Amino acid sequence: MPQTDKAQDDSRQFVSFIKQQAVAMRENDGPPATLEAWNVQRQELRRRLIESWGGFPKRACPLKPQVVGGFERDGYRVEKLLLQPRPGVLMTANAYIPDVTGPRPAVLSVHGHWRLAKSEPVVQSRCIGLAKLGFFVLMVDAFGAGERGIGQALGEYHGEMVAATLWPTGLALAGLQVYENIRAVDYLLTRPEVDPDRIGVTGCSGGGNQTMYAGAIDERLRSVVPVCSVGTYQAYLGAACCMCEVTPGALSYTEEAGVLSLVAPRALMLINATRDSFQFSVDEAKKSLSTARGVFRLYNKEDHTRHVVVESAHGYNQEMREAMYGWMTKHLKGEGDGAPIAEAKIKTEEAETLACFPGETRPNGYITLPRFAAAESRRILKQRPIPDHVERWQADEVLMRSSLPRVLGGFPKLTSLDTKIHDDELGKRIEFSPEDGIRISALHQMVDGKHRKLAVLLDLDEGMKAATSPLAEELIRGGWDVVTMDLRGTGATAHSGDKIGRATDHNTAEWSMWIGRPLLGQWIWDIRRLLDAFDEHRGGLPDETALVGVGSASLIAICHAAFDRRVDRVATLGGLCSFASDTPYENQRMGIMVPGILRDVGDIPQLAALTSPRRFVIAGGVNGAGKALSTDQLGANYAWTKAVFKLEQSPKNLRIVTGKSLVELVDALTG
Known about the structure:
This protein has helices at residues 3-26, 35-52, 121-132, 160-163, 173-190, 206-217, 256-261, 282-298, 318-333, 351-354, 369-381, 390-407, 470-477, 506-514, 519-538, 553-563, 597-600, 604-609, 631-637, 639-647, 662-670, and strands at residues 66-73, 76-86, 89-98, 104-110, 136-140, 194-204, 221-227, 267-275, 305-313, 420-424, 427-435, 438-445, 453-459, 481-486, 544-550, 569-576, 615-622, 654-657. By secondary structure, it is α/β, with parallel strands linked by helices. The protein has a nine-stranded mixed sheet with strand order 1-2-3-5-4-6-7-8-9, sandwiched between helices. It has a nine-stranded mixed sheet with strand order 10-11-12-14-13-15-16-17-18, sandwiched between helices. The protein starts with a helix and ends with a helix.
């Protein structure tokens, strides 16, 4: 095979594997035969979705609505609002109120990834168009977007490493937004102008995604119109999407058709564009709607579905809006047959006119998305005090060890490794299959052929190339055989175009999340099977086997050692010291941000405690913003870990060094 063809095959290996996994998960899907069967399935599906999002608060806090400004226009007026969907969190919104008397139908409008969020002209247009038809419209800014970004200027993107700060707490941006949209409906019900039995929802792209989810979960929404957003979950695999569209583990229990089915028997219109991305394409949407219509038929309400296809690119253009107006008018006003209604003349506003915080008047302590995530992390960690006696630690350890495999998505069955060993100019090239569909390469450099000490050097950026790094050279000088490897989806098998913003492994991490197998768990499995290959071909591992993790790979080394007692030493170099971060993660891999790991298992110091009483070397470390911690800060950060090593009577096996000297690191690991 030509080298270029092999490289292309290698770069497609991971996404092909993910797609195969997804197909196997959903191959037995079928429509429910009866309404009774569907009702059982429906309750379980709702439960699983909310669980995937990290759950909703048990009690809704007061919304504390504030009208902070407004203006009048021909046929309607606009109020600028602040709402509190969660304690201390402020949601910016605009209400478009028609000049009609008595309770009227209402529509919740949710934006997509337009730069100006609720103030984008194309977003304003549907709000104005609906208001001129007599609908009360509430337009909200999504968490992390519009006026709710990290900075005060409009145009921020709330995905990648901004939203990733949520995952360790168990929360997902998709679920946060669904809950906020439910609270927006709560607010609509407080308005005397709104008929509580006639509320709908619409949005486009990411807003269409939220429309689908909010419509599925909140049955107060009687008419649901997602635009340029519905396709299939499997169509996301191989594409880039925002974190706000990811429901962790969804493909392990449903497809998009299942979510659409939850809208039944209420009104559902899908609008798709002919020149859209594959994941939102007409044909993919047809697959999902066809299955969902089977559920609508169980209610004798197939006529409550409609699919509108518009010859256009991605967007929410006038033809799409007019189709939505007709559908909302039929199902919320009881007028007409759902045919399109011509749009009145529309004049949009400057973004500043709609701003709830004009200029730079937003309070300095405003809770941004990472600040919210950090506060949630710290709230959880307060419930995990440092263990002060052995029995307390043993109870914590049992809980942590039982929870970690589940959080990581479980591990596959053992299969044949099909190990091949070849000579390489630096040593021995080892190739093996940790599971069907994945092929891993590793490089073994031997000191003297006696194989007395083995160090597996993990570096997600360098992979096998770390064999020539200064750290590898220092380990070899210290008498260690060194193995470097390309973990799946990295090195030679890295997927082209994987990087989005700060996240080097954005797409592969998201695809893994869709099938419920976070990359961290997959990487741990690769290392386990590497050690199995050594066991198989060298008659066992040496007495001293170490894992050395560099940067983001530090957490891989820690978590693998928690499972594998064959590893008797661990060292980390410049690793992340805590998941809690009130700024977006910098210089980290999204693949190590596992949903629920901090909530259900612990923060990095708690995970590190699972290496006790074995040798554990912490050589420097960084916070979420990528800033290096001093030795004193490292000591304070790892107080939990130190307490456990002391309880296990092995305090000298925990060593904290600066990380500035590789000699110091290797000496601490070896001595």
